[in-house]
Design goal:
There is one protein chain. The protein is an alpha/beta fold and 193 residues long. The chain has one domain: Rossmann fold. The chain has six helices and nine strands. The strands form two sheets. The chain has a six-stranded mixed sheet, with helices on both faces. Helix 1 runs antiparallel to helix 2.
Length: 193
């Protein structure tokens, strides 16, 4: 376990406030009931601050990397609290201006933030993990610019934690911290309708 019992209980209490009791239609047509939208914390400043304080204890001092733009507020706050740099992987590439570093030869359309030296280790942080596909895409993009992923930290796994861990291990990522499992928080989440 990566959290002490008080941190764990407080994080569970906060995450429960992010539950949305709605019917969700999946791309394949299946419908499920209920989901956790941890990005709701951006509108809950007190809970967001408590969450950031708890999460900062689970991180190393390597630069942070966001696997998508939606997690950027978490990364920005964690970077500030820990005093470490951060970079961000885009959902789609940006081909105009410079977004990564300050020199054209360092720029990449998939990444934004300040330039990290070749071979720099980073830690990827995400709010939820399911199969690990968005993190795998991030790892592949970072490998193209010779950034090394040291670890992955996720607040919560949605489905099968072992499946995500196995998928990431195929890409050499074995240092994975998943702080909560959705099954620890909700008994009826994802009930198929």
């Amino acid at each position: 376990m990566y959290l002490n019992s008080n941190e764990y209980q407080e994080l569970v209490s906060i995450i429960k406030k992010c539950y949305c009791p709605e019917k969700i239609k999946q791309p394949n047509g299946d419908e499920f009931f209920g989901f956790y939208n941890l990005k709701r914390l951006y509108g809950m400043p007190n809970e967001f601050q408590k969450t950031i304080n708890i999460l900062s204890n689970c991180l190393s001092f390597y630069p942070l990397c966001a696997p998508d733009v939606g997690i950027s507020p978490f990364i920005g706050a964690l970077s500030l609290i820990k005093g470490i740099p951060s970079i961000y992987v885009r959902n789609s590439p940006k081909y105009y201006y410079l977004s990564y570093g300050s020199k054209q030869e360092h720029n990449t359309p998939w990444v934004f933030g300040d330039f990290l030296e070749s071979g720099q280790k980073v830690q990827i942080f995400d709010d939820v993990i399911d199969s690990g596909s968005s993190i795998i895409k991030t790892v592949q993009i970072l490998q193209e610019i010779n950034i090394v992923v040291d670890s992955v930290v996720c607040i919560m796994s949605i489905e099968d934690k072992e499946k995500a861990i196995n998928n990431l291990s195929k890409y050499g990522i074995t240092n994975i911290k998943i702080l909560l499992e959705v099954s620890e928080i909700s008994d009826n989440l994802g009930r198929k309708l």
